[in-house]
Structures are given as C-alpha cells and as structure tokens.
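Hi support team,

I'm opening this ticket because the web form for multi-chain structure prediction keeps timing out on my end. I have pasted the exact lines I submitted so you can reproduce it. The total is 832 residues across two entries, so I didn't expect it to be a heavy job. Is there a limit I'm missing, or should I split the entries? Thanks in advance, R.K.
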Amino acid sequence: MELIEKANQEALSRMLAAEPVLVDVVPASVAIPALKDRMILHAGPPVAWDRMCGPMQGAIAGIAVFEGWASDLEDAASKAAAGEFDFHPNHHFDAVGPMTGMTTISQPLMVVENRTYNNRAYCAVNEGLGKVMRFGGNDAEVLARLAWLRDDFGPAVGKALRSGDGIPLKHLIARGLTMGDEMHQRNVACSGLLLRELAPALARTSDDRETLATALAFIGGNDQFFLNVAMAMGKAIMDPVRNITGSSIVTAMSRNGTDFGIRVSGTGDTWFTAPVEMPKGLYFPGFTEADANPDMGDSTIVETIGLGGFAMGASPAVAGFVGAGTASDAGNFTRAMAEITAGENPEWTIPAMDYQGVPTGIDIRLVLETGLAPTINTGIAHKQPGIGQVGAGVVRAPMKCFEKALIAFAESLGVK
Amino acid sequence: MELIEKANQEALSRMLAAEPVLVDVVPASVAIPALKDRMILHAGPPVAWDRMCGPMQGAIAGIAVFEGWASDLEDAASKAAAGEFDFHPNHHFDAVGPMTGMTTISQPLMVVENRTYNNRAYCAVNEGLGKVMRFGGNDAEVLARLAWLRDDFGPAVGKALRSGDGIPLKHLIARGLTMGDEMHQRNVACSGLLLRELAPALARTSDDRETLATALAFIGGNDQFFLNVAMAMGKAIMDPVRNITGSSIVTAMSRNGTDFGIRVSGTGDTWFTAPVEMPKGLYFPGFTEADANPDMGDSTIVETIGLGGFAMGASPAVAGFVGAGTASDAGNFTRAMAEITAGENPEWTIPAMDYQGVPTGIDIRLVLETGLAPTINTGIAHKQPGIGQVGAGVVRAPMKCFEKALIAFAESLGVK
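Hello R.K., no limit was hit. The queue was backed up. Here is the completed structure from your submission:
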C-alpha cells in the first residue's frame, strides 16, 4: 500500500509540476511524422470501421473527401469498409481530438509543450458549434471551413505564436476558473483570455488584413474555441504521468462513441474498455434523446486533470446548460469528485467554494471503493452521420472500465 | 403612497427598458459642445478648488498641463487657485468619470447611446491601473498615455465602432455576470467580451498595423478597461429616469473625494450631499489606510443600476480583492441590497444565486427604513497628488445624503 501511495504522490506531483504552453500551430504531418497518407486518427480507444458509430463513420467519410482520398462520401465509406484507410487512436500519437476527433495529415494542429518534461501534445482547431466535423458533419460547408482553417487560419495563428515565447496556460486556466469556465462545456472566459494574448501578436505578424479580421472574428465568435487548447494541454500534462510502477492514477479517459477506455499509470498503455453510456442532458430545439449518439471524444482528458465535470463548482452556469440541476448544486459535483481523487490542485481554485482546489488525479481504487464514477460534461452528437451537435449533458465513465483496470493493476503488483 | 409606488414602478421600468449601445469614441469637444476651453469637469457633486482633495487637485494640475493651459504642475495649481479654470461636475454634462473623473475638451470620450430613449452619455477611456490620472497621477508618463489615447487609440476605436452598428451592452453585461464580473472592481470578463466584438472591426478599419497591435494589447492588458464603458452605460440608463414626480428612486450616486452626493428622481437635479466616508479595504504592498484618500468618483453609477457592490454575489473573487470577507459570503451583500431596491433585473442574473436578478432601483425610503446604506466596491487613491491607486475596498454611501433627500422628497409631495 505504501508503494501505491508513493507512486500516486509521484503521479500527482508530476501533474502539478507541469508547465503547459501553447507554442505553435503546424500541419499534422509536421507535428506527427508517423502520420502518413490514408491514416486517420480518431477519438477513443481502438475501434474497427464496422463497430464505429454513425457520426464517427460520417466524419471519416468527410475527412477522406477533404484529404482527396475519395471522390464523395459514398466512395469514402466504401473505401473505409474495404480497409483502404488505416485507423488509429489519437492517443497513440501524442494527440487528442474532440468528439469524433479526426486527425489527418493536412489538418493544422495546435501544439502544447509541457516545459517541465519537454513533451508536446497536439489537437486540431475547434471548428465552432453546430454542424461541424467533430459532431459528424461532413457537407461542403464543413469541408470549406476545414480548408480555411488549413490554408489561412492555422498558418496565421502559428506565425503569431512563433513570434513570441508561446502562451502559458496554467495561469490562464486559473483565471478561467474564477470566471465560470470548467473548460469542457464552458470555455467562454478562456477563449476571451486567449484572444487577449493572441490578438496583438496576430496583428503584428499578419500581412493580410482580411485574414486577420476573419481570424479575430472566428476566435471571438466561438465560445468553445479554447476547448481544443485545454485538451492538448490535458494530454501534455498527463503523458509524463504514464508508466509509474504502482500508481493507480488514471492517465487517460477517452471514448470512440462505441467504447469508453481508460488508461492507468501503473499499467502503462493498456486500454480498459466498456460500452459507452448515454449522456443525460438537455437537447437543442427539435432534438431528443432518441436522436442522440452515446458518449464520444477524447475531450475527457480535461476531467482527467481535474477540469470539466470535476470543476463544476466553478461553473454554475454550465450546470444549467448540461442539465445537471440547479446552479447552486454545482459544487456538489466537485465535492463528489474530491472523493475519488488523490488531491487538490492548489493553483486551480474555485472562488465560490472558498478557493478549494479542483479535485486532481483519479484513483481507480477510490472509484471502486466509493462507487462514484467520474462525472463528465459533454456535448451530444446526432447518431446519424452528417447532422452535428444536438445537445449537451453529463455522463459517467462506465464502472466496468475501472473494474477491469483494478484487476490488471493488482496483477501488475503481483496480486492475484 | 400609491403615487410613489406607481412612480417607482415607472422608474424601474425605464431602467429595465433601456437599450444601451457603445457607438463611438469622439473628442469631448464634439461629444459635449458646451465644454469649452479651460473648463474642467470632475467627478461628484460640485466642489470648489480649495475644498478639493489631494488627488483631485493633482489630476486638475495634470490635465491643465496636458491641455496646454499651464506650463507645469505648479503653474497649473496657482492658476486653479486663482480661478482661471471653470469647474463643473461631469454629471451636469451627460458625462461620468472614474475617481477624479477629469473631462476636458481634447480627451476622447466613449459614447453610449440608450436607443430606447435616444439619449447619449459619455466617459473617458480607462487608462489602466497604477499611476494614472483618475487616481491623481500627473507625471510625464501619465500625460504621454493620455496623448496616445487622444491621438491614436481614441480615433482608431471610434472608427471601428462607426464601421458597424455599435456594440449592444445589455447582453454583454448579462454574460459578464455569469463570468464573475460585478463591473466595478472586476471587469476582466466584460473587457474580454468587448475585445471579442471590437477586434475584428479594429482590424478591418485600421490602416496602421502598429497602432492596431498596440490598441489590441492595451485593451487586452487592462482588466478594468470595461469599467468606463459600464459607467457611460449607467449614466445612459439612469438619465431618462430623472424627474419622475413622486419617485423615490436614486438616479445618481457620486463622490468628489470631499462630498458624496445623490440625486433622486422625484426631486430632479438637486444634489443631497454629506462628507464622504473612508473605504474599508485591502491595500497594495507598501500602503496603509493612513495613505488613503476618502471615497471618490462617478463610478458609483454602476451601483445605481444594480451592479458593483449590489452584484457582489456574482463575483466571489472580488469579495477577496476588496476585503469584503470570504468568497462564499459574497451573496450576502447582494441579498442585503435587495432590501433597499424596488425590484430585480430579470435580464442581469447571478448563476450562483440560482439566477436571482441583481437588485435594481435604490429607494431612499427603504434605505432609511432598513438602515442599510448602499454598498459600493471602489478603488482607493493615495491622498497625495501624483501617486495613484493604493488599494481597493468597500464603502457605504453616507446615510445623511438619504436623510436630506427624504426631507426634500417629502416636501416635493407637499408633506412637511
């Protein structure tokens, strides 16, 4: 037991020592040299084409057309079914992606560097709300936006970031928590704080006024812009926490729309999976739970570092948005998550809870002891391809993942 | 009594019906044609030179040098003492100004239009924190910043605003309240939201990249940038509430560093004054209450519309900053202010208080009945000219103002 406590303290101290900095935006082929033509990275643990959910298949068809690997969506789907594309999880390539989480060679990826451990993590640029690829959208409007992100926006933001020393994210998150963000379903404050840092550099480095104005309007018009930055940050923080012998701390939680998977520090890169659950939430006008796809995306990396559902107490406004009860109840979610975590983050605090730190470092033993599964704030995609987001809600990580993980963890320590 | 209730309901409905929009930045001489050479508008009710506090005299000396009416600070002070400048309250010219509140012909003023009642109100541009003119600063650095605001920043922002239909403020304030701002001592969210709206227009209308980048950095680097917008908005909302026969609602609260003054709707433009009080607060390193100037500025217009100290419950982080107790106590201030107000603002709500609206429309009768004076969140200036801000705190409006006002109000209704 002492070994485990020590290992978990080491895991927690690595999380708290991280210094994540947004440093660049580069094409995925540059960020991830192992990413080749006709390779498609997706959210969650590994999944084959025939087990993929509707929006995941829709996004894959869309991105294949976008990359020029198929003439149209139908062609793309039949090529996918015929095994012409190579599917892998983002997590296997230092990357994360929201919802369907498509990552392919030509897309621009945001780069977050963890300066304490010299590792980097990547995430695509947030496309905005509604009909977008991460929610399974794949029509001409969706592909045109991706082309603009690739050709104009990404290069402009990359140039702006490279002109300085990057944007440190730790303090920015701390401010965001005092401004009602939990960095999963609410990123309005952090998106604005990021814009404050980026805008002068964008203005100084841009040589095209229209691209500059459109880029500023794109960031300023998208309350969730920061989510993808928070995700890359989460990955950059958690990667150095992997492979600590004896640590029962969760290093990744992730879903592909079919399976939910977790990884635990002491058991290395093994995924422990179970079927995803259906979020309980609120639906946009015209949609109901009957339209909803089950839980999906790598975005649960933010809960893994104490944000999202774990920081609900910082964000009474999100409690209403995700249908989690009254605003004054928001703190209860955070208090519950403190029951399953190794500690608090003293730098990321919640004013309305008298500056309690966010619960940090999910311990699979505590999850099973308390029966409290991690709370996740999530967007909800339509189950059919091509439609997009239909709501937002709260979902639990399946207990089965933690049961499987604990067995393997015990075995890793020689316990049967 | 029925007359008073009806009049107060009319006052409240005018407040809630307001549609304030930030539309322009123009030189004060253009905004206020009655503002002439050697006229100096200041915060608070009328006050003569020899009764002015140190930072007010310091700011007047500085602005006189800035306008070229004096060769140096000493020359300016002796000219002021000799009666060469004409002093008036901002409030007499549709304007407001924070702390010392200097308004003179060449300064750029932000223009807020109340589109429901077609009136406009004005406020100078926020200079940032520390040694600035509104806190009595007056050296070369302070004057150089004012010159840049006049020559570069003001014209650029004015041009950007004129290129569109203005920036509606009501919804922006509503979002800011969900993000921890109370719009007096905390404006970090609204400053960012305003930047989101302004940045693309600035980029489209600027023809000088360096001015653009510097302007974006100036707004992005000043968490209190929005305060002056909120103040002009407050004035634009309250001016149409003046002169409703029988209304006991406060239309202005304001302080010149010597006297605190209030105006009440039913008694027109009469000021009811009493000596200002000393804020209770927290001081910046190296300063104590012995350095502090008593309460000052027109910024209390934000409390008059239900923000600032009245919206403390929205802003647990500000409770700590102004030394008002623990963060979880912040709601108590808002609950207390609900005892002295005519109603709630259903569009400006506080998530952490389960979307209670901010207490709106101070009724002088309720202030005297309950003995609860309005709570004001305020910055604290050094009492000597030339130094600047030394802290922030909470202060009460003097009860004496309300006593005097009630007597005059009763007389206005024929009651002795």
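A quick check on our side: The two ends of chain B are 15 Å apart (CA to CA). Let us know if the file doesn't open in your viewer.
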